[in-house]
Design a protein that fits this description.
Elements lengths: L2 E5 L2 E4 L4 E8 L7 E7 L6 E9 L2 E6 L7 E6 L4 E6 L8 E8 L15 E2 L3 E6 L1
Parallel strand pairs: 2-11
Antiparallel strand pairs: 1-3, 3-8, 4-5, 4-9, 5-6, 7-8, 9-10, 9-11
Length: about 130
C-alpha cells in the first residue's frame, strides 16, 4: 500500500506561481508512475502532468493546457513528486490530485483508471 498526501495549494493571483507536493509513504515508489490530475465541480477529473522514471531513463507528459507553464519532477530520496505551476490562470482553479501506480510503463498514462493510489486533493484557486 502507498499513501499519498498533497500539499502546497492555496490562493494566488493570475500570473503567479505555486508548487504542489505529493509525499508518498508506505512503500518506496521510486519506480512508480506518478501523475497530477485536477477536477472542477461538475466536471470530470482531467490529466495535468505525469512522470515515469525507469532505470533506462525517464519521461514526462503534459496536457496541452499546461504545457510550457507546469513542470513535474520527482525527488526519490524524499519520496516526493512536485508540480511547479507558473503563469497561473483563473482556469487552472481546481482541486489537484496526486496519483500513482507501480506500473512504470511508457508512454505516461493520462487515464484516471490506470492509477491505483490517490491522494485526498489540494485546492488551487487563481484569482483574476
Amino acid at each position: 500500500q502507498v499513501q499519498l498526501v498533497e500539499s502546497g495549494g492555496g490562493l494566488v493571483q493570475a500570473g503567479g506561481s505555486l508548487r504542489l507536493s505529493c509525499a508518498a509513504s508506505g512503500r518506496t515508489f521510486s519506480t512508480y508512475s506518478t501523475a497530477w490530475f485536477r477536477q472542477v465541480p461538475g466536471k470530470e477529473r482531467e490529466f495535468v502532468a505525469g512522470i515515469v522514471i525507469r532505470w533506462s531513463g525517464s519521461a514526462t507528459r503534459y496536457s496541452d493546457s499546461v504545457k510550457g507553464r507546469f513542470t513535474i519532477s520527482r525527488d526519490n530520496a524524499k519520496n516526493t513528486v512536485f508540480l511547479q505551476m507558473n503563469s497561473l490562470k483563473p482556469e487552472d482553479t481546481a482541486v489537484y490530485y496526486c496519483a500513482s501506480d507501480p506500473k512504470d510503463l511508457l508512454p505516461v498514462s493520462t487515464t484516471e483508471s490506470w492509477y491505483v493510489y490517490w491522494g485526498q486533493g489540494t485546492q488551487v484557486t487563481v484569482s483574476s
